[in-house]
Design goal:
Layout lengths: L1 E6 L2 E6 L11 H26 L5 H13 L3 H31 L9 H22 L11 E2 L5 E2 L1 H27 L8 H26 L16 H20 L3 H5 L8 H20 L4 H23 L11 H10 L8 H27 L9 H25 L8 H23 L8 E12 L2 E11 L10 E7 L9 E5 L1 E4 L2 E3 L4 E2 L5 E8 L2 E9 L15 E5 L4 H4 L9 H30 L20
Antiparallel strand pairs: 1-2, 3-4, 5-6, 5-14, 6-10, 6-11, 7-8, 7-12, 9-10, 12-13
Length: 628
């Protein structure tokens, strides 16, 4: 393994077999994963060769069968069927992986974590689904938006985008290993390479929606719109398309998973902002592109998938339980506004609906958050929350309206306007993320803790705590949390995670509401979040020889300084590197993400340019074209 040291501002790497246990994977596992990726890639290329040289016919027949059931061309239908199974596999693996890290800590390597197999298989087949859409067309041009690869080989734009998103996510795996070798284990979902993995998978749903649309419009003429076969099963078509937007809602919601487990490592105002961004885009687009009730259906579909996954990972597999955002409030306001004439003006509808999601919708969602989450949204955070949710809601709603406009058959607005809309969304997301990442760590503040024995659970020593924070006015009357987090300790009953929101007993004084573990491999930390103040103190931290960390013992009474909580929650992360190196690595990931967004925008515009007028309307409809 690589051991990283910094001397006089220069980065030097040396090979060591143990010293960087908290860094990258064992080289034998890296080589094994690389060999497996090579074999799968070679097999895919060989399959493509056999199909395109007509040495096999079963692949084409299978695609035709899928197409006959879905009323789509085979090159669109079969990849979509494969995608559904593969994205569900990857999502199960992802939730399981997060729960394993929360409950048990870091892995011995990527192949030592069973959830990684589900993620890898899911992401590989995600890429294969896109590649399959490119491989299948033989003697046809797959739609008017097809891209020419060779003199006789045309591929659908949606297939390129799905394959590209899958490849982007897959690249995150080896880059994640390199990242850990350089910066240690940043045990957070929001590590840059982790965002590549989940971002590529989540945004691939946009490619799926484009591929389905591309396949559907390819079945008719430019003058008449979709082929009549599409109307043979209008209910099935509605369900398929509504489910795609439900999948998109799930894909965009994965950025919130730390909040779902109660181990969020950043300001709480991030949670409503992320909910509004995902809900405004997915639900506004669903209502405009699928029809009445589609936003509610997408929310129901997402909730069923999330609940099944939570049950499998929690009660069945015995890992920490997670809850999830419901998005019902967002769906209700979107559907209500769609009953007004605004629905005929897609961009205006998107902006107004996005504003409603960022205000009324997020307030309705707070009722669900209060009921099921560990940390409800406080009254004091609402002003800052609205500064986050309103610009994100309006700009993502605008982009959703633009997306629906692009695929409506009514054409896109002028390039300057549509580029401004996308840029405004990126700026709004970037500014709110930067605001949320800003926090204060108090100087010379301390926490005095008195522990009382509370027996044993799963063989672990359990305690309750009385806490006094100094200065007493460090925490106001309505903090986001003063809590004890115990995690990464295992146990059949505790499942590796205990979160206790402390009860306030007076100015600067708090007490436990439940026992927490303080031995074994547990990491037990007092956490304080009030406004921009985000700080913590260790109660018990197990010794970790792999990263050279000594035990922090849980004595009956002690006073410890309040420090930046990232140094405790991300204990295995290395801060011993030049600042510029981390900045450059993070910017590289950001640029790659923006390139993926650009590719999806390019594909949308390309498909929009060949979409027949009124392509989404029922052929018997007599309504007038919708305007911007």
């Amino acid at each position: 393994m690589f051991e990283i040291s910094v001397t006089s501002g220069n980065l030097n790497m040396s090979v060591d077999t143990l010293a960087a246990e908290g860094g990258g994977a064992a080289l034998d596992q890296v080589f094994g994963m690389s060999a497996a990726a090579g074999v799968i890639s070679a097999g895919l290329l060989y399959l493509a060769f056999l199909h395109r040289t007509r040495r096999i016919t079963w692949l084409g027949r299978l695609a035709d069968f899928a197409g006959s059931k879905a009323n789509l061309p085979g090159w669109a239908a079969l990849p979509l069927v494969l995608f559904i199974s593969t994205i569900l596999t990857a999502f199960l693996g992802f939730i399981w992986d997060v729960s394993l890290h929360i409950g048990r800590g870091r892995d011995e390597g990527p192949l030592a974590n069973p959830a990684h197999y589900f993620i890898l298989v899911g992401l590989f087949f995600l890429f294969i689904a896109g590649a399959l859409a490119m491989i299948l067309p033989l003697d046809e041009k797959p739609g008017r938006a097809a891209v020419k690869l060779t003199r006789t080989w045309y591929v659908p734009t949606g297939g390129i985008l799905i394959a590209g998103a899958g490849l982007y996510a897959l690249i995150g795996f080896p880059l994640d290993d390199i990242w850990h070798r350089m910066f240690g284990q940043d045990v957070t979902l929001w590590g840059p390479t982790h965002l590549m993995l989940i971002g590529g998978a989540g945004l691939s749903l946009v490619g799926v929606i484009l591929l389905e649309h591309e396949g559907r419009i390819s079945m008719g003429s430019a003058a008449d719109g979709p082929d009549p076969r599409w109307h043979k099963s209008p209910i099935l078509t509605w369900v398929i398309r509504g489910s795609a937007f439900g999948g998109l809602l799930i894909g965009l919601s994965v950025f919130q998973i730390e909040f779902d487990f109660g181990v969020e490592q950043f300001q709480l105002i991030f949670q409503p902002m992320l909910i509004v961004g995902a809900g405004a885009f997915a639900l506004v687009a669903a209502r405009l592109m699928v029809g009445p009730g589609a936003a509610l259906f997408a929310v129901g579909f997402a909730a069923v998938i999330r609940e099944i996954t939570a049950i499998v990972v929690g009660p069945i597999l015995g890992e920490p339980h997670n809850v999830f955002a419901l998005y019902l409030g967002a769906a209700v306001v979107v559907e209500a506004i769609a009953l007004t004439p605004l629905a005929k003006r897609r961009l205006l509808f998107g902006a107004v609906a996005g504003l409603a999601v960022g205000t009324i919708g997020v307030w309705l969602e707070s009722l669900w958050i209060d009921a099921v989450y560990v940390f409800p949204w406080t009254t004091s955070m609402w002003v800052d929350t609205l500064w986050m949710t309103v610009p994100v809601g309006v700009t993502t709603g605008l982009c959703a309206g633009l997306f629906a406009q692009a695929l409506s058959g009514d054409g896109l607005p002028r390039p300057a306007l549509r580029r401004s809309v996308v840029l405004a969304m990126i700026v709004a997301l970037g500014a709110t993320v930067a605001n949320g990442l800003t926090f204060d760590v108090p100087s010379d503040a301390t926490a005095s803790v008195r522990l009382a024995e509370a027996g044993q659970v799963d063989g672990f020593r359990m305690v309750t705590a009385e806490v006094t924070v100094d200065p007493a006015d460090l925490v106001g009357d309505d903090p986001e949390w003063v809590a004890i987090l115990a995690w990464q300790g295992g146990g059949a009953s505790l499942r590796g995670l205990v979160v206790d929101q402390l009860e306030r007993t007076g100015p600067g004084t708090y007490r436990s509401t439940r026992p927490v573990p303080v031995d074994g491999s547990w990491k037990t930390v007092l956490r304080v979040h009030d406004g921009r103040t985000l700080t913590a103190a260790p109660i018990f931290m197990a010794a970790d020889p792999g990263i050279g960390a000594a035990e922090v013992s849980a004595e009956p009474a002690f006073t410890r300084g309040l420090v930046s909580e990232i140094t405790l929650l991300q204990r295995e992360r290395s801060f011993d590197h030049p600042t510029w190196l981390f900045a450059v690595a993070s910017l590289t990931v950001l640029v790659c993400t923006l390139l993926l967004v650009w590719a999806l925008s390019w594909g949308t515009v390309r498909i929009s340019s060949v979409t027949p007028r009124h392509a989404l309307r029922n052929r018997r409809s007599t309504s007038t074209p919708s305007r911007i």
